[in-house]
Design goal:
The protein has 16 helices and eight strands. A hairpin with a 4-residue loop joins strand 1 and strand 2. The chain is elongated.
């Protein structure tokens, strides 16, 4: 095949520079091949620099002028700089056959290097595109419904495997399908290596499809000592920031295989539950006498309750013809029942308690520690600090009000000096 015009020019330049005597340097000489490769490499780097310069000067100015967010994120993730690396590979594809001889080992080597560089540059650019999609998704309202970090990582893994297969096929000059068929022989090893990845991918599909968890959810896993907010749901691991500011990392599949308490329902509801009981000394439980009734009439929360109950008891005694002084057959008010009515009325008037949710004051089973009186309601403020303050204020008031009803909280006394 006859040499092209460019090849003749290079030969003339080499002969002139080195003042090579006859016979003149030909395309088969090593000096020509080195010069051609040097020209290709330097020109390819210049092309890369020129494209990056255009991207920085022209394209960046254009991006800053508009109000679109997606192109700014593409620039932040380095997409345009990475896509510029494709141009040197394309230049090598175009220039190498012109400067080098056809059907030679050197030309084949240069073209394969350009192909490998093109594959790697393309994959890296696609990675930037995937990062952009993830960032834009995290900024949207859809991120509150389902995370896509796991799917992005799976996509990157698949693309990386494809790039590796293509690179190996280019080096070995074999079809990628032949390499894929050979992978079946080591499938067991791959499954063992990527076991967590496969389990995490399946768990990610379940989490996204069922909307089980999302970034920002408060989860609690007692088996692993995890109690905090999900920061990231990845393909292999989940990052949780505990309330003590430590970071816990868990395999993604544990979210579907283990018992996990998700507090999202509480945060999205109208209140946070208060469920706490106080132990009452059963020896302090008694009937109300007239003096106690007169004193409690001044408590505005239970004035209506006392009047209603006293009228009910009076009607019962008249209908059953029972003398109120008959301690055996007469019905009487108790301090524990009145106290329970007082607590319920107090909570129903509390401004920080959600009145539309379940609210009750109930007795639990008596034990050797006394009679448990449980308060069950929901705080309308779900913030942890404010919630604890509201709960403490309620029980402060309840404990301070007990002496008015002649009730005592149960307290174990372990110091023998108090018994003497």
């Amino acid at each position: 095949m006859q040499a092209s015009t460019i090849q003749f020019i290079i030969l003339d330049i080499i002969n002139a520079l080195f003042r090579h005597p006859d016979p003149a340097i030909t395309m088969q000489d090593i000096s020509y091949k080195l010069a051609a490769i040097f020209i290709i490499a330097v020109t390819a780097m210049f092309v890369l620099w020129a494209v990056k310069f255009i991207v920085r000067s022209k394209l960046l100015t254009l991006l800053l002028r508009n109000n679109q967010v997606w192109d700014d994120v593409l620039h932040e993730q380095g997409f345009f700089n990475r896509i510029a690396h494709i141009t040197p590979a394309l230049f090598v594809f175009a220039s190498a056959p012109v400067l080098l001889e056809f059907n030679t080992l050197l030309l084949s080597f240069v073209l394969k290097c350009a192909q490998i560089y093109l594959v790697i540059s393309t994959i890296i650019a696609v990675f930037s595109l995937l990062n952009t999609i993830e960032v834009l998704y995290q900024r949207s309202n859809l991120a509150k419904k389902a995370p896509i970090t796991g799917f992005i990582q799976v996509s990157k893994l698949i693309l990386a495997i494809i790039a590796i297969l293509l690179t190996i096929s280019l080096i070995l000059d074999k079809s990628p399908l032949i390499l894929l068929s050979g992978l079946t022989a080591i499938a067991a090893i791959l499954l063992l290596i990527f076991k967590d990845t496969i389990l995490g991918f399946v768990a990610g599909i379940q989490i996204a499809a069922n909307r089980m968890f999302n970034t920002g959810d408060w989860i609690e896993m007692q088996a692993y000592g995890v109690d905090g907010e999900i920061r990231e749901i990845g393909l292999n691991v989940v990052k949780v920031q505990n309330w003590d500011k430590t970071i816990a990392t868990l395999p993604t599949y544990t979210l579907t295989n283990e018992v996990v308490k998700n507090w999202r329902g509480m945060l999205q509801s109208g209140g946070r539950r208060i469920k706490r009981s106080i132990q009452i000394d059963m020896q302090s439980i008694t009937f109300l006498d007239q003096a106690m009734i007169n004193d409690l009439h001044n408590v505005r929360f239970i004035t209506h309750y006392l009047e209603s109950k006293l009228n009910e008891l009076q009607d019962y005694h008249q209908n059953e013809q029972i003398d109120q002084s008959d301690l055996l057959n007469a019905r009487r008010l108790t301090n524990i029942g009145t106290f329970r009515a007082y607590i319920e009325a107090y909570i129903r008037k509390h401004p920080q308690i959600n009145q539309s949710l379940t609210l009750m004051v109930r007795q639990l089973k008596p034990t050797e520690h006394g009679l448990a009186l449980e308060i069950y309601c929901f705080s309308s403020n779900k913030n942890w600090v404010e919630y604890e303050g509201i709960q403490a204020d309620i029980f402060d008031h309840i404990l301070a009000s007990m002496p008015l009803f002649k009730l005592r909280p149960y307290q174990s006394i372990t110091d023998k000096s108090h018994l003497s």
